[in-house]
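Consider the tokenized backbone below.
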């Protein structure tokens, strides 16, 4: 009898279904090995942690066994880009090749779907909508009449981070549920119904952890019937999980609550209360807290002082007074809103939101749970938060719960191009509670020694030198002028992005054939489109200067990106509350925080960034890292050893020669 592994190998073999259906497909030993190991896990159950080097084709390696098994599967990603790739490109091609049609559904969070009731309310109260959003509101209204899914991503060039979303989407707390006059056409409920009957459901990590905490999005309603769970881009699991598994109170949530109180209270219960006075009391109390924090030196990410029950650097009584005043105001307005619930369902929903804010204050005012960290941050919004240091306990509880409730043994697969920097991948498995997992590392099929070169300029200022960013800009300007763009500059801070980007714009001011784009100028999708268009013969070359999100999820094979420049080793900010808490935890356990935390995190992040360069077997390019510590410090050499084995360039003249020698290659088909 043919096993699932045998069937998978046949699909990936030369002259197999994939090669016959996809002309660019090439059978790769590494991909075959990964697919077989995943097939064994799908068939037998258990945990598999698989690091698959860039170019392995890991999505095909888990999708083929899933489809051949005939089992229901839940796939979670860190980014919307990979969600779209799976649903719109990879799964359709595999289904066509295997002739195995299955129902696939992408399930997103509430904020992705338009709420018809809130859209109607926004239109009726258009005078309250900020003037700059009126045109966007009109576009959403016209589109809402024809959409079948309600997914705002369908709207061409609709901003991903727009203030309008707060007006036209729902949250768990402001949703009217079955009392909503537009409940019959609710797009959130429609998406969940479709997910319940789909064989393959694609979600993201944010939704998984959000639902783990609140059981609100329907994900955990799906789990009992799902046999295989795959976490792709699994290296992001811990970072995303700790954001969603804790408690949070923010001045922004108060602001949105007060805005809706004024909007709905004045319209639906006119004369029942002086809503402006209530809102002013709440806003004033919140403002007093912000003012108090602003007097502290460096009010970003203040750790909590458990001994005085206040943020570090803040007097206990000074903190307690405005917090108590705000708590009382929220409880009083909650009582009033619930009293008026019979007037309109919106009043009941506002009452629940007041309760939620009040409950958050109560929870955060209590002792910090063991294994958690509490902090206060005063950035653009004031945030008071408490969350787990790691997702270890939460994941282990979920794995145990699943084992107790499922008759067939469920398979859990965790995969990414970068999961650690040691053979056992313990940095990842320990933080995620995957102690019993099988671990697999599959090397990239790319010949980095012939496809890429690494240059670490030695005559360079230290990263702490004020001139460092300007020197990076000078280096990039010289190279981008030769390459006519085709350059991605990855930096570790927003300040560095602005310094380097502005210097480059000044340098290329007189050149109309080169454009310097900052992350945030336009959407990430548009930036990638600009790079691809320039590579395919566009009139204007592009240099992109970016932070966080561009270190991963950028997949542009061919000559769209021929040089990646990284400003320095991406060590995590040492003042981050979570980092400080993990340092304290490791120190208490007798471990070495630099070697056991800072170093592996930096090595993984640098490897992710470097992975943006070579995306196909025919790509060629240059990686430049402007940090001399990689050569002068022992830990730098350890980090370097984790990067792909590229040819090394030691002199600037060699680097210039390599730039001139770079040839253009056609974009390949990155299955």
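A designed sequence for it:
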């Amino acid at each position: 009898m043919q096993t699932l592994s045998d069937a998978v190998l046949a699909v990936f073999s030369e002259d197999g279904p994939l090669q016959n259906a996809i002309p660019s497909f090439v059978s790769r030993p590494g991909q075959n090995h990964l697919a077989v190991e995943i097939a064994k896990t799908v068939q037998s159950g258990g945990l598999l942690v698989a690091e698959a080097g860039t170019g392995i084709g890991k999505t095909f390696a888990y999708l083929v066994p899933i489809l051949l098994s005939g089992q229901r599967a839940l796939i979670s990603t860190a980014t919307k880009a990979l969600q779209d790739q799976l649903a719109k490109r990879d799964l359709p091609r595999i289904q066509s090749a295997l002739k195995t049609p299955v129902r696939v559904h992408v399930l997103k969070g509430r904020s992705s779907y338009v709420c018809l009731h809130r859209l109607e309310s926004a239109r009726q109260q258009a005078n309250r909508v900020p003037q700059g959003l009126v045109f966007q509101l009109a576009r959403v209204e016209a589109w809402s009449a024809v959409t079948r899914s309600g997914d705002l991503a369908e709207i061409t060039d609709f901003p991903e981070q727009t203030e309008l979303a707060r007006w036209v989407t729902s949250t768990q707390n402001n949703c009217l549920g079955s009392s909503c006059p537009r409940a019959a056409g609710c797009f959130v409920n429609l998406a969940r119904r479709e997910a319940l009957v789909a064989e393959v459901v694609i979600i993201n990590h944010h939704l998984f952890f959000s639902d783990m905490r609140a059981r609100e999005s329907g994900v955990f309603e799906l789990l009992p019937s799902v046999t295989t769970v795959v976490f792709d881009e699994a290296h992001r699991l811990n970072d995303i999980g700790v954001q969603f598994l804790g408690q949070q109170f923010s001045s922004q949530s108060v602001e949105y609550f007060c805005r809706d109180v004024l909007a709905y209270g004045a319209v639906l219960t006119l004369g029942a209360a002086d809503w402006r006075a209530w809102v002013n009391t709440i806003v004033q109390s919140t403002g007093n807290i912000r003012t108090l924090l602003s007097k502290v030196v460096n009010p970003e990410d203040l750790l909590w002082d458990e001994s005085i029950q206040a943020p570090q650097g803040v007097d206990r009584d000074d903190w307690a007074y405005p917090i108590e005043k705000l708590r009382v105001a929220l409880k009083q307005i909650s009582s009033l809103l619930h009293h008026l619930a019979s007037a309109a369902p919106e009043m009941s929903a506002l009452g629940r939101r007041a309760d939620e804010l009040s409950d958050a204050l109560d929870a955060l005012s209590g002792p910090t749970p063991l294994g958690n960290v509490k902090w206060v941050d005063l950035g653009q919004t004031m945030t008071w938060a408490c969350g787990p240091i790691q997702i270890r306990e939460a994941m282990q509880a979920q794995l145990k719960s699943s084992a107790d409730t499922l008759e067939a043994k469920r398979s859990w697969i965790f995969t990414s191009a970068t999961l650690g920097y040691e053979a056992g991948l313990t940095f990842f498995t320990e933080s995620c509670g995957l102690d019993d997992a099988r671990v697999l590392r599959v090397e990239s099929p790319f010949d980095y020694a012939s496809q890429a070169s690494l240059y670490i300029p030695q005559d360079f200022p230290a990263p702490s030198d004020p001139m460092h960013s300007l020197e990076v800009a000078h280096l990039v300007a010289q190279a981008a002028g030769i390459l006519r763009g085709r350059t991605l500059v990855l930096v570790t801070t927003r300040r560095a992005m602005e310094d380097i980007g502005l210097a480059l714009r000044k340098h290329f001011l007189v050149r109309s054939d080169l454009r310097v784009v900052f992350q945030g100028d336009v959407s990430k999708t548009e930036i990638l489109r600009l790079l691809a268009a320039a590579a395919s013969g566009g009139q204007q070359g592009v240099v992109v200067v970016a932070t966080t999100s561009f270190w991963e999820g950028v997949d542009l094979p061919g000559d769209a990106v021929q040089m990646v420049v990284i400003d320095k080793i991406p060590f995590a900010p040492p003042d981050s509350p979570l980092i400080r808490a993990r340092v304290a935890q490791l120190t208490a356990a007798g471990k070495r925080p630099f070697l056991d935390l800072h170093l592996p995190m930096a090595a993984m992040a640098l490897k992710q960034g470097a992975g943006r360069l070579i995306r196909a077997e025919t790509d060629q390019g240059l990686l430049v890292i402007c940090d001399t510590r990689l050569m002068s410090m022992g830990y730098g050499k350890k980090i370097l050893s984790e990067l792909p084995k590229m040819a090394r360039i030691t002199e600037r003249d060699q680097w210039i020669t390599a730039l001139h020698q770079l040839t253009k290659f056609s974009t390949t088909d990155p299955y």
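The mean pLDDT is 90.
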